[in-house]
């Protein structure tokens, strides 16, 4: 147990969000180069990354997803053994102190498997269910996005700000598609109505990176249906601390419905457009 963990156990005080973020940054900074190395070895034929499917044939998981989650969980609990963990690849530990880590070891696994950019490591630190710290690492661009609740958002230690876009017609909108085929069909139908009314659509392939693009002004908005808490928790804090607006429609604990994150100046107009296009089927 670390000194800070002993202090928390003795005093009953919650940890400082900055300490949690620092721990997560240390771990993902060690893991990110290994992901790139493994993918490079797969591409040049010197090694192979094992892959299987989960919910559908389109929902991939690689041995590096599993290795990353295992390495993160071991590192976090080595430093903070009383914390809880929720990970995409099955880690579920209740914890005893109100702190929970929400982990997506590789968000954008399909991109990773195909040697494309747009994948990331996403780690959110929650205290009593509230996300107070966030880390999203983009191994390809060698960028680490961080935020603490009320403390602002950063990319590689430098402050970032969401765009000031206030005209939906000239906005660059990011989105993603669900693994369920029926949901995909509905998303494609609504997209046909949305596309002519914005500057363009981008489908990067990983929600966490997409949302961080909004946080740093590289995109003006991101919307997506059917994400999981590990896709959104870290990136959403980074985006809102960077000044973006965030609305969830529908959903339930640990399972968002339709996530909409954008420049504040287009948020209401984007939501109206999503309603009109049939992309929002359950109000918040």
Condensed summary:
Helix content is 38%, strand content 25%.
Task: Kindly describe this structure.
This protein has 284 residues and is of the alpha+beta class. It has two domains: 3-159, Fructose-1,6-Bisphosphatase, subunit A, domain 1 (Fructose-1,6-Bisphosphatase, Chain A, domain 1, 2-Layer Sandwich), CATH 3.30.540.10; 168-277, D-Maltodextrin-Binding Protein, domain 2, CATH 3.40.190. The protein is 38% helix and 25% strand. It has eight helices and 15 strands. It has helices at 3-11, 17-43, 63-79, 109-113, 181-194, 207-215, 229-241, 264-277, and strands at 51-53, 60-62, 84-87, 92-93, 99-107, 120-127, 130-138, 143-148, 152-155, 158-159, 172-175, 200-202, 221-225, 245-249, 258-262. A hairpin with a 2-residue loop joins strand 9 and strand 10. Helix 2 (17-43) runs antiparallel to helix 3. It starts with a helix and ends in a 7-residue tail after the last helix.
What general form does the structure show?
A: globular
The CATH topology of the largest domain turns out to be Fructose-1,6-Bisphosphatase, Chain A, domain 1
Q: How many domains would you count in the coordinates?
A: 2
Q: If you compute it from the alpha carbons, what radius of gyration comes out, rounded to the nearest whole angstrom?
A: 19 Å
Strand content: 25-35%
